[in-house]
Amino acid sequence: MSELLSVKGVSAYYGGICALRDVTLHIDAGEIVSVLGANGAGKSTLLKCLSREMKIRQGEILLDGKPLPNKSYSVVESGMVIVPEGRQIFAKLTVWENLQIGCCLRRDRAGIAEDLERVYALFPRLKEREKQYGGLLSGGEQQMLAIARGLMARPRIMMLDEPSLGLAPIIVSQMMDILKNINSTGTTILLVEQNAKKALAISDRVYLMNVGRVVREGSAQEIASDGALMDAYLG
Ligand SMILES: Nc1ncnc2c1ncn2[C@@H]1O[C@H](COP(=O)(O)OP(=O)(O)OP(=O)(O)O)[C@@H](O)[C@H]1O
Ligand SMILES: [Mg+2]
Questions:
Q1: Is ligand 1 within 6 A of the CB of residue 39?
Q2: DSSP at 69
Q3: CA-CA distance, 217 to 198, in Å (whole number)?
Q4: Domains (ranges, CATH) in the chain?
Q5: CA dihedral over 170, 171, 172, 174, signed as positive or negative
Q6: Could you state, in chain order, the average pLDDT of each consecutive group of 10 residues for the chain (235 residues)?
Q7: Residue 27 has what DSSP assignment?
Q8: Interior angle at CA 207, CA 212 and CA 153, nearest 5
Q9: CA 92/CA 94 separation, integer angstroms
């Protein structure tokens, strides 16, 4: 496997508050990597830095061994997409229109049509509701729409911020299956979760964060079998 994304010694601040402290991690092509940790660990901040929504103060982020572009849209163009915390779908736009936003930087019409078919095959429910306003979907459907919108950018890396938040356990399981499926078609996944159990079940590797630092790295198996660690950091 080759290193697709690497984060080296990254620190980031909100004014004077340090939210990421010397964070180093990497993701290989084809992996599902989870970043786990309690409230305030810095997980969302890490994703904001990776999507260039937030400036880093120290360190560097490399994609394919080259510096990650500085503009958010260039990050998307270079193949990294974020499915943000709280879905952030457009309530007053239809499902179809929401999906179009996901591919607004693309010009390859044939590819876009192909991806729309693929997304509808993956989420038949969204096809059924194509003309419905996003705001009328259930929480689970809105999360599926947020993932589908991300896929419309045809990402190489999909980053998701707490996709399981507020969803019923059965919907969470379905969503994790879908992420596994997306990964099996070649998309690398970076998953940020508080729902450690469900995330561990589909992940290859895990980084554990606590108050802005990476405190542990390991295979999903290793981390899951460490009861004391799970209790200490993941409740
Ligand atoms: N906009 C902000 N302004 C100031 N401080 C912030 C801001 N957003 C986050 N922080 C602080 O930065 C730290 C990391 O927050 P972050 O949102 O990255 O954590 P998280 O791991 O995503 O937590 P959660 O699981 O609750 O989503 C916390 O101490 C938080 O209070
Ligand atoms: Mg968060």
A1: yes
A2: P
A3: 18
A4: 1-79+159-235 (3.40.50.300), 89-154 (no CATH)
A5: positive
A6: 90 97 98 95 97 97 97 96 93 97 92 96 96 95 96 97 94 95 97 92 96 96 88 75
A7: E
A8: 95
A9: 7
Q: Whose CA is nearest to atom 26 of ligand 1?
A: 39
**At 228, which amino acid appears?**
A
Beta bridge partners of 141: none
Ligand 1 pocket check for 187: Cβ under 6 Å? no
Residue 85 Cα to ligand 2 midpoint, Å, equals 7
Q: Output the pLDDT for position 235.
A: 66
What type of residue sits at position 23? V
CA of 6 relative to ligand 2 center, distance in Å: 20
Among 205, 162, 159, 164, residue whose Cα is nearest residue 61: 159
Cβ atoms of residues 80 and 63 within 8 Å: yes
Distance (Å) from CA 36 to ligand 1 centroid: 14
Of residues 59, 31, 71, the one with CA closest to residue 159 = 31
Q: Is the CB of 17 under 6 A from ligand 1?
A: yes
Mapped to the 3 state alphabet, what secondary structure does 130-152 carry?
CCCEHHHCCHHHHHHHHHHHHHC
* Pocket mutation for ligand 1, best pick of 20, 23, 36, 44 (most atoms within 8 Å of C-beta): 44
Rounded Cα distance between 206 and 191, Å, is 9
Say if ligand 1 is within 6 A of residue 14 CB.
Answer: yes
